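Protocol check, entry for the methods section draft. Step 1: assemble the input record (protein sequence plus ligand SMILES). Step 2: submit for complex structure prediction. Step 3: store the structure tokens unaltered in the notebook. Ligand used here: zinc ion. Step 1 record:
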Amino acid sequence: MPRAAVLREIGEPLEVLDLELEEPKAGEIEVTIAASGICHSDLSVQRGIVGVPRPVVLGHEGAGIVTRIGRDVTSVSEGEHVVLSWVPSCGHCAWCRRDEAYLCASGQQAADAGRMLDGTTRLQHDDTHVHQMSALGTFAERIVVPVQSAVRIPNDVPWELAALIGCGVLTGIGAATRTASIRPGDVVAVFGCGGVGLNVLQGARLAGAGRIIAVDTSPAKLALATRFGATDAVNASEVDSVAALKELTGGVGVDVSFEVIGLETTIQQALRAARRGGQTILVGMPDRDAMIPMRALAAVYGARTIRGCWYGSSLPQIDVPRILDLHERGEIELRALISGELGLDDVNRGLDDLAAGSATRSVIRFGV
Ligand SMILES: [Zn+2]
Ligand SMILES: [Zn+2]
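Step 3, stored output:
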């Protein structure tokens, strides 16, 4: 019986419970989790900002060992190490056929429902079905997931680094290298330098941006941002961030602005900071009722591009190995993303630290 951190009621702390886990069915695998990052989206589910059926095991940024395979599974074997993706792409829907696996229709449906691709669940507690966030639920010792959620990695990748790739790294680096169109020498601004924002910064560096301006209200995060490629820092608690960005660009505005927080005010600032003809990429997960605050005329007259970014437009089967390769060659930073490690029983402390802004990424380590 694996132990797992379960959310029963919105706003309540997670409860670590012993769950019953069924065997993997056709096209599914059992993964023994080795490490899981705690991401802002876990907090959003706990707070009810993102609706997920409950009870639910949270966690969607993890890595582990394949310990059992179901029928018809050929792409992974027992004993292999995998990074988990939170969109299990089917490979044949309208989006998958367009190379937009991150928008897979059936994968998203399963992820939203917290169930396997066949619409059923594999976890139970006291005869109640327990859902899995994003069809994963990585705050658990062992889970069953669709095989499409698994990306094989070499066995020597440290677990705590592998886990982070599954959400924050793919999303952030993908936002800069896949969602946005950054040209060499472009001036880029990133609003919000948490776990994802730091990866947008290093993604912008990979894409060849010239000046990379970090915007945050935390001096500690701005200091960390320089390790991830920021050439300039704007402390938005001290100055008007839009005015500061205009000043740094001779009154023109930045070529590409990224919003990685999800608040109307910072979305508005990111829009105003982009130059005429520039791009604004919305990465942060907003509240259900949040709007994009801008006049239509400003979009037309400004010839602006506004793009929403889902999972960094990533193709995990291609991008996970690419990220590991970049890391091995020293072109990206992973370890410095981790602000602390903790055990499964400390998961609520990890969520509180994230909410308080004192953690970039806490990683839960399991006994693997
Ligand atoms: Zn996440
Ligand atoms: Zn699909």
